[in-house]
Structures are given as C-alpha cells and as structure tokens.
Design brief:
With 591 residues, this protein is an alpha/beta fold. The chain has three domains: 136 residues, 3-Layer(bba) Sandwich (Glucose Oxidase, domain 1), CATH 3.50.30; 124 residues, Enzyme I, Chain A, domain 2; 302 residues, TIM Barrel (Alpha-Beta Barrel). The chain is built from 22 helices and 18 strands. An eight-stranded mixed β-sheet has the order 1-10-9-3-6-7-8-2. The longest helix is centred in the first third of the chain and has 33 residues. The chain is globular and about 85 Å long. The two termini are 42 Å apart. Bound molecules: phosphoenolpyruvate and magnesium ion. Magnesium ion binds next to helix 17.
Amino acid sequence: MAFSIHGLAVSRGVVMGRAVLVGSSRRDVAHYFVAPEQVAGEIDRVRQGRNAVIEEITRLQASVQQLGPKDAPQELSALLDVHLMLLKDEALGQGVKQWISERFYNAEWAVTAQLEVLARTFDEMEDPYLRERKADLEQIVERVLRAMQSTANPAGLRLQDRRRKPHKTDTETGAAAEESLVLVAHDLSPADMLLFKNSAFSGFVTDVGGKTSHTAIVARSLDIPAVVGARTASQLVRQDDWVIIDGDAGLVIVDPSPAIRAEYAHKQAQGLAERARLSRLLHTPARTLDGEVIELMANIEVPEDVPGALACGAVGVGLFRSEFLFMGRHGHLPDEEEQFAAYRRAVEDMRGLPVTIRTVDIGADKPLDGSQHDDAHLNPALGLRAIRWSLSEPAMFTTQLRAILRAAAFGPVHLLVPMLAHESQILQTLAHLQRARASLDRRGVAYGAVQIGAMIEIPAAALNLRPFLTHFDFLSVGTNDLIQYTLAVDRTDESVAHLYEPLHPAVLRLVADTIGQARRKGKGVAVCGEMAGDVAMTHLLLGLGLRSFSMHPSRILAVKEEVLRADTRVLAPWAADVLAADQPDQAILLR
Ligand code: PEP
Ligand code: MG
C-alpha cells in the first residue's frame, strides 16, 4: 500500500523509479551496472565466492569434529552448520542471481542487495533465536564478499558511473521504458555524491542532512530530484520498491498506486515543459528593466562541470569548490601537477570567462575521506576547517596556491579564500601567496595574475569588513555558512532545519552590509551560497544592490527570468523596508 515520507526538498523535479538501497549495510562495495554479456560471468563470480566459503567452513567443521566434544564446544559445530545452511539457501543464491540478471547489478552489489532483503525478513521474525540469525547471515556475506575480492573488477568504484541498460517494460503503466533507479541511503558523504555525477541514478533520498549540507548541494548540482532529512526512509523503503521522489515538495511516495503514478507523470511532464520554456532565455543577456547588467555565474565541484555551466549560460565560474579534488583520496592528496591540470582544464574550457577557484574547504561535513573521524563529537563546523586547515598545512596550501597561479597563465582566474575571520589569517594567506609566487619564480615556471577575494561566511568577518576591503579585490558572501554561524544552526542537521532561516533580520543585515560596504569601496561583491540560486530571493538581493550571483548551473535560467522582470529602482526602497521589518517571512517576498 502506498505511503509517504516527508523530508526536505533540496533538488527540484519529480522522478519515479525503483529504489536502490545503498550503504545501509555499511559494506563498502563496488556498485555498477554490467552489460548483458557480463551477466553469466558475474553470477559465476558469486558462485565461486560462495563455494570457496562453503569449502572453508566444511574444512573447519571437519577439524572441529576431530577435536571431539571436550576440546571443541558443541555450539561451534552447530554455528558452522547454520552458516553452511545459510550459504546453501536458495533465498540467497536465487535472489543474488536475480539482481544480476534482471537488474544488471555487479556481483558485489547483488550480494549486498540480497543481504538487505533477507536481513529485513530476519528483523521481522518473532522468534528471537531466528532474529539473531541475521548476524550469522551478515558474517557469511562478509566472507563471500572477501572471497570474491580476487575476482573483483579493478575499475569498479564504489558507485560507478555506468549507465544501466534498458531491460524491462513497466507492466502497470504499459510504458516501454528504461526504468529509473533512485538511490535511498541513510547518509551519503559529499565524496560519495560526487561519484554519482553521470551515474545511472535519477533521484535520491537520504535519512539525514539539511538543505544546505554539502550532500544536498552536490545533489542540486546533479540536477536530479532529491529529498534529504527523510529520517527513516532507508528503513521503510525496501530494495526495488517503486518510489516517487517529489523534489519540489520534499516528499517520497513509496509503492504508489497507478492513479498516483499517473498524477506524477503529469507533473513530470509539466517540469520538462517548464525547462523547455526557460531554455529560450539562454542567449538573452541578464539585464534588469532599468538596464543593470547582472552577472550570473556557476558554482562547480569538478572541471567536468564546466560544459554544463556554459550550456546553462553562465558568464563565469563564481565558485569552484576545489576540495572535491581532495576528497576520498585515502590520504593521498592531489599534487601540484594534478591540481594544475584540473584548474587549467576548467580555465581553458571556460574560454576566456573568469574562473573563481576557492582554496580547499575541507572539514565540517566535508571530511577528506568520506567518514567522520573519531573526534566527530567535537564540533567540526567550528573546528579546523577551510583556511584554518590550509594554514595549518603550509606545504599543502602553497602547493595549491602554486597550481592555481599556474592555471592563471591560461585565462582569467580569481582566487577565493574561505572562512576567514581574523586579519592575521588574511596576512598569513597573502604571505603564503607571495611565497608560492617566489617559488614559481625560482623554478622559472610561468604563472598569471589573479584577483584575490575573501568569502564572507563568518559573522565576525561581516561585522568587521575593513581588513577584508583593504586587502582583497572582491568579496563573495557564503550565505550557507553565514546563516549557519549567525543563527547557530548546523546546516547538516535536519532536526534544526526549521530554524535555518535565510530571512532572519540578522542574516539579511549582514548580507546587506557586506554588499553595501563593498560597493561603496568600489570592490566586487557576489553571493555564492544557495541563496543566490533561490528565485524567491533574487529581487531582494537585487534590491540590496547585488549584481553578481553564483549558483548551481541548473538555477541560472530561472534566476535570469527574475532578473529580466526586475527594476532595481523600485526594488531598492522595497528591500530597505524588508530589511527594517521585524521578522520578514516568505510572504514578504511575494511582491
Ligand atoms: C557558503 O558557505 O555559502 C558557500 C558557498 O560555501 P560552502 O557551501 O562550500 O560551505
Ligand atoms: Mg561555506
């Protein structure tokens, strides 16, 4: 029967598809689709793995029996029997075969998918003895996966980007379709999310996360419907369930009836029509009714995002989150050459348009290796993050600065520094930059001039802009963090998501002051947090004097439409009124 789960809407649109539960078994295995001709080979890999474990346990069983009852506890022999029985059970073998031959999952994925299915069956058993057998099942699956390692596909990433093959007809709707797959997980790190770029998944749901958590941000950049903070979704949804994700409403509908599916198919069609309508604005210059030219730029995570940004009409990259080059590397950070190649690629692919490269912002919800460390009980958002980490790792930092400076020889580069609060940090950063230039001079390596900017994302910076306006060419307001730190609301924590309020008067005042002071000083100022891509905020930001926005490429045309309808002469006094209001709410934005 259909039921729905509410979460936070983070990425727009509607998708219907089969649920793929990932990661809840905490097994870090490869997930990718195999070609039809590889199906037999994958089934054979599972068979070999399973046989190897059966042999291993049978050997162990024999030696236990040789020991006799005095030296070997009876329970051990009984336990090994249970393991053998589970291994030979058809429910495991047949299920795995089905995942491979019908869904084209690779062998490891098929094994963990079937484990999920069986584990739930055990969870639902009334008899406590039988319920506890789930642990045995998990153990033998672990062993089978280990035994399969020797035949693993070396190219198999944890979540690999191979497109699945069309294979089935949806009998209920009669649509001859390539079935969409939607990913359901308890949590996904930003590094995991990065692996989904160009992946087969058409939507995703996580139990945890806030609207501006980095996982949500990457989801938005994938431009697929997504819901985070859906609390128990990964427990309620089962492997292969039919699921609708309504990314506009933050709703997940499980096992929808044909009538609900038809309704959402209509909504999906409307979404596509809306996109087609907006695409007509692609070549229209972003200029307000009173002639103000507005810069609409793209936020990117990896150089491969550049073509997508250009295709949406971005006039530059306003934020290249370089930390995504550093994540999930198991301690092997990218060296100068690797970074240089990535930055140069982005710069060259932008064909003369500016690229704003932010120095690494590792820490908080963007750990290097995808998992929180032991000290996660400390407050990572207030810890050694972003520039704080960079300044504590001078060799890493100057390596990055050298790579950025070198890329600037190939096109306009702006260098952006995150999370600054103290003038001493500013001076140290500039000294490192000088050192990086000097070392390139010594090596005789070419580099280019860069404009240097600071992110304003800590209230202390917004309240004390003088040193920033003295030392930097431009400012970029990181509203995601500015809201988090101003309101003391963890941006990743769905339990306080209702308090994460971009329209809080304190937040608006800090944003307005930053824009105003930068403009008065003749410095460039942009907003690159999620606020910049929120069409509900476009007129307010224009009214506050903002002329440069950086956002997910998928938001650019919708924001451009708002710009084309705006008259800043009217918006400025209105924005001043909003700023003076006690507690502006969304209604105030509906002018
Ligand atoms: C921000 O904080 O608004 C920002 C753009 O940076 P990030 O989201 O990467 O922290
Ligand atoms: Mg930030």
